[in-house]
Amino acid sequence: MSSEWSWHLIEDHSTTERVLDAVARGLDDPGGPQLVLLTAFRDYATGFVDACHNQKEERHLFPLLEAHGVPREGGPLGVMLAEHEQSKALLGQLVGLIDQYVNGQASTLVELRSTFEQYAALLKSHYWKETDVLYPMARRILSETEADAVLTGLRETESKLGADTRARFQALAETIVNMMELEDLSAGLPKEVLAAVLNTLPVELSFVDAEDTVRYFSHENQHKIFPRTRGAIGLKVQQCHPPHSLYKVNQILADFRNGRRQVAEFWIDQGGRKIHIRYFPVRDARGRYLGCLEVVQDITAIQALQGERRLLED
């Protein structure tokens, strides 16, 4: 539980970054942003980012770090607090511009876009500093008792804003994201680039949908541990396994659908190589089962690793 406080705050960051990306996309719409998008963002940024997330850090994390000798002035805490104030000032400008635009002053759109870009850039940079620098430092410094106290304090701050504060703002964030159909990091990424990324991974991927139909496999025109052709696409996964293993395939898929299992893994020896095979259930943001992902990896070289290698060598 000692590091749970940091995952709590990192989840805040992740949720807010998705909101920022959705609003940026809305502001780029040639027809202008949806008014409901802007008002939802205004409510999220003022009610959660400023009045909740920043306050959780300032009241429950920063004081403990200061007590451990992390300076408030001129040090990392000073930077974080200064950026909280900068974001608050920019948000105040944004709220005014949003209200003007919603009330029919279309001439404010250029300034609204510019101010939002500054606000989003500041938050993303700020979150990176906290997630990658401040929080790891805090995890090293805080005792388990102090870490648990931070988590308790974070939850208390939320509860003072309403018993359902976290769920309410997460739902609002999902509403904003769904308005722009910005579901994940692949949005806006050309499919050929996404395919190249997947084909570059040192693992082979196959995806079977919720109806047990094979829909995708990576590394099509490359050497594969388990060779297959495009003829597999559209087949039921049961048709791709020998009869003696069907009971195991069906059991795994049933367990994934029902939430009884989160991974199934096997390893085999093949031509002097050790092959690791894992299956994972794929679910959407609401927990709905979308299918099964197979991940196959040759781990022979990984098993042979010894000692450390910290520098790039030719």
**Helix run count:** 9
- Low-confidence runs: none
Radius of gyration: 24 Å
Give the strand content: 5-15%
Number of domains: 2
State the CATH architecture of the largest domain: Up-down Bundle
**What is the fourth-level CATH superfamily of the largest domain?**
nmb1532 protein domain like
**Order of H and E elements:** HHHHHHHEEHEEEH
Q: Profile the largest sheet.
A: 5 strands, antiparallel
The coarse overall form would be globular
Specify the structural class: alpha+beta
Approximately how much helix is present in the residues? Answer: 55-70%
**What is the CATH C-level name of the largest domain?**
Mainly Alpha
Q: What is the fold-level CATH name, i.e. the topology of the largest domain?
A: Four Helix Bundle (Hemerythrin (Met), subunit A)
Detailed description of the structure:
By secondary structure, this protein is of the alpha+beta class. Helices cover 56% and strands 12% of the residues. It has 2 domains: 4-179, Up-down Bundle (Four Helix Bundle (Hemerythrin (Met), subunit A)); 191-303, Beta-Lactamase (2-Layer Sandwich), CATH 3.30.450. It has helices at 4-27, 35-67, 76-102, 109-141, 144-160, 165-179, 191-200, 246-258, 300-303; strands at residues 204-209, 214-217, 264-270, 273-283, 289-298. It has a 5-stranded antiparallel sheet with strand order 2-1-5-4-3. α2 runs antiparallel to α5. The model has no long low-confidence stretch (mean pLDDT 91).
